[in-house]
Amino acid sequence: MRSHSKSEIVFKSDNIGIVMQEDSDSERVSKSYIHEDQSSFNMLFLLSPDITLNALDCDTQLVFKKNQYILHYSSKESNAALWTDGQENLKYLHIQLNYRYVSNLIHPESNEEGAEILKSMIHNNFIFIQKATPPNMTVEMHMIIKEILGYSKTGMMQKLFIEAKIIKLLILIFEQFNEKNVLESPSNNPEMVKKFIDENYHRNIKAEEIGKLMGINQNVIRKEFKAKYHTTIAHYISELRMLKAKKLISDKEIMIKEIAIECGYEYIQNFTRAFKKKFGVSPEHLRNNK
Question: What is the pTM of this model?
Answer without folding.
Answer: 0.65
